[in-house]
Each structure stands twice: as C-alpha cells, then as structure tokens.
Automatic annotation (TrEMBL):
This is Metallophosphoesterase. It comes from the Archaea. PANTHER family: BLR1149 PROTEIN. Pfam families: Metallophos_2 (PF12850). SUPFAM superfamilies: Metallo-dependent phosphatases. InterPro entries: Calcineurin-like_PHP_lpxH, Metallo-depent_PP-like, Pesterase_MJ0037-like. Residues 20-166 form the Calcineurin-like phosphoesterase domain.
C-alpha cells in the first residue's frame, strides 16, 4: 500500500477486539465536487476497500470512524446511496462498526434506519470512552464538540479527527507535495479542562491528544502550520482549549507510516530555513 492508505491506528480493547480507528471518510464528497463541475466517479467502494485492506493488514476486527462519515453537511438526498453502500460494505467485514457523529453528519441517523446492518452503532459528537487491553481509557470523538466532563475526567488520552492535519514535503527532485500526518499533543490535563469547561475540574498530570488525518484520499488535508500555531476558533475544535500555539514543543508530527518528523517548534525552524517549500525528505 502507499503511505496515503495508512491513515489510521489500531487499538486492542479489553473486550478482545482489535479496533481500527479512522476519521473523516467524507463519503459523498464527489457529489459536491460534481456540483462545481469536477466530475469524479463514485469513491465509496474505493474508500471501503481501503478500510478493509487496512483491517486485513492489521488484523482489526472492529471499526470506529471518528466523525464526518459523510460529506454533505445536512442533506442526504444525493449522497445517501453512496453512504449506505459504503457502510454495508464495511459492516459486513467487522464485528462492530461505531460511528461518532461529526459536524458533517446531520441526518446520518436516517440513513442508518434504512437497510444498514444491525452491527452499526451511532454515537453523538461528544464521543465515548474505550478501555484498551492495557487498561488505558481512550476518549474517542470527532473534535468539534466538547466531551462530557465525566468522560474527560476519566480519560488517559483523546483520539480525534476533524482538523485534517497534513504537511508539505519536498523530495530530492524539488517536487513539493502535501502528505497527511498523525499528530500527538501532550497537554496539561488540568489547564486543558479548565479552559474547556471554564471551571476547576481537579484533574492532574499530562494527557495525550492524538489527531488523525482525513481518511478520504481526495482530501489530503490542511498544513499543520495552518492549524497548531494558530487559534482556530472559527473551526470549532477542542484544540482551541489546548492552546496549541503556546506548546509547539509538545506537539509531535508523524507521517502515516509512523515516521517521526519532529516537534512543531523544530519543524518551524526547519521550515523557516527552507522557506515555504516544505521539508526535504529523501524517499529514495
């Protein structure tokens, strides 16, 4: 598989399942592109096959999609068939499929009520807590809505999507491309919680936030330098409460094959030295 296909992670849970976690499949994106004059064949089967290929490679038995399962924000009229086809393809290969609602998933419940297999479950955008095999409590959500305070208090880490992180890379020939990345942010849980809930919550220690890239191959993502060094209030992301622009040294960036690129402060210095062209990586 190419690097672009490894846009998720796996978690072994205490119930014996190996969960594949992905985010932002944006099924039906090609419908919107068609309205703008960009004609692209249906991608639902391709996206489903990428999910199944990744599951086979990793041994995943169940699936979580962390929001923006579909692309059309409210309407489901034109993309309902694509979404239903996608869900039926993937649900037939997993024990469980859990969908966490994202900001694009209005009326997704109407699709699930019609001809979708019973092993598909819909969770609201505040997410849910999964306990891993090693006892860690993972709060899984899209990232556009605050989690329940009790879930946040109990969580050891947050895994989310929503912001579509990517990075500009320049190869040895000078060609510049944008590649999706996985980002790990280490935050002070007490400060993060106080900012998010506007009250002292009594949490202590550090916690990690894992931000997954978009899974849809048509949406490479947004440059990390347009996300983490800025206060993206208009994006409605909980990362606003982490004040990421103040802790760039605590933000680690990985390619989707888990190649470690460095922390954001170091990458910023490299980017300044190289200009806007990106990062020089020898793929050969």
């Amino acid at each position: 598989m190419s690097i672009e296909e490894f846009r998720g992670i796996t978690v072994d849970s205490e119930d014996g399942e190996r969960w594949l976690l992905i985010a932002d499949t944006h099924v039906g994106l090609e419908v919107e592109l068609g309205k703008k004059g960009v004609r692209i064949p249906s991608q639902s089967a391709r996206i489903a096959q990428l999910v199944l290929d990744f599951a086979e490679r990793t041994g995943a038995t169940s699936l979580v999609i962390l929001g923006d399962v579909k692309h059309e924000i409210a309407s489901i009229v034109e993309s309902a068939k694509e979404i239903r086809e996608f869900l039926n393809r993937v649900s037939g290969k997993f024990n469980k499929v859990v969908l966490v609602k994202g900001n694009h998933d209005g009326n997704l419940d109407l699709i699930l009520s019609s001809d979708v297999k019973p092993n598909v479950y819909l969770i609201d955008s505040r997410g849910f807590v999964m306990r891993s095999k090693d006892g860690k409590k993972l709060l899984l959500l899209h990232g556009n809505s605050k989690p329940r305070i009790e879930d946040f208090m109990n969580a050891d880490a947050i895994i989310m999507g929503h912001t579509h992180p990517a990075i500009l890379i320049q190869d040895v020939t000078g060609y510049v491309m944008r590649s999706p990345v996985i980002v790990k942010i280490r935050v002070n849980k007490s400060v993060f919680g106080k900012n998010m809930y506007n009250t002292e919550i009594g949490a202590t220690g550090l916690m990690n936030i894992i931000v997954l890239p978009t899974f849809n191959p048509l949406t490479v993502g947004m440059d990390v330098f347009e996300i983490f060094p800025k206060d993206l209030v208009e994006v409605e992301t909980i990362l606003h409460y982490a004040r990421t622009w103040e802790i760039l040294g605590n933000i680690e960036v990985y390619l989707t094959d888990m190649t470690y690129l460095g922390t954001m402060d170091v990458l910023a210095r490299i980017r300044e030295d190289m200009g806007e062209g990106g990062y020089d990586i020898d793929w050969l």
